[in-house]
Amino acid sequence: MTHGHLWDRLSEAKTRLDPVQSKYRVLFEVPNEPDEPARVLCPDPNWMACALEGGILPPIETYQRDRLVPDGEPKEHPYAKPVGAMTEEEAIEYLIQKDIDPSVWRDYKGNRTIMKIVPVELIPSDRSFRNAWRIAQ
Amino acid sequence: MSTLEVSNLNDGTTTVATTFVTNGSLKSWIKPAADLSSISDSFNVSSLDDDGTGDGGVHITNDMSSANYVILGLTQDGGTTTFTRQCDITDGTQAAGTYDFEVYGLSSSQNRTNSDSQAFLATVGDLA
Lengths: 137, 128
Hints:
The complex is a heterodimer.
Chain A: H1 6-16, E1 24-28, E2 39-43, H2 45-53, H3 60-66, H4 88-99, H5 102-105, E3 115-119
Chain B: E1 8-10, E2 15-17, H1 18-24, E3 26-32, E4 39-43, E5 45-52, E6 55-60, E7 70-75, E8 84-89, E9 98-107, E10 110-114, E11 119-124
Antiparallel strand pairs in B: 1-2, 3-4, 3-11, 5-6, 6-9, 7-11, 8-9, 9-10
């Protein structure tokens, strides 16, 4: 194995790559929590730098398979061969599949729009009524 | 990248295994913006959720080995002397690759109320 452990690659990348603040956010609602406000997912700038660089992050399929692994059992993603460079848009799609529950992006069959990828400027800066945020239909 | 392969470290009198150092190091950390709109800096974090006022979630890039790890969480005091601010981990959310947290204030005259205050978070434990 020549690609080493994911944590080692992240450590090395942190010393070498400048963080990249994404111009996107993912706005989503959780179907089984209808009373909760809309959530906003913010990509990590160091993670985004790794995604754009390539050769650091594992295939998204390894995270999906690891979701089925019982807690405490060995996981695949830290040891998997890394994938190549992504565009920012591809990185956002990867992150949705990694960090948002499949009930939001895969399994939802209702009529409401419960997820949107939006430019960061569209997220309100006034948080006075943050706990009432919903996705406009 | 060069690699040093050493099993032990010695300071002249004491020898410890290199795993003594790596096992005890932080495995991830994050300083989000107070309003959870962005991430100031981090390590081994893939994203941050803004779930509401003073209500956030952290996703880890290289999972911990299990949900049995320690999360360290602090918040700034805001310079106040009349109430206290705290950061806690939301019940039932700690998993190998993610956890949720809440930041709130309380005083003798006000029950716990979530607030958008600066949090500092890190994890310690075994990696997957």
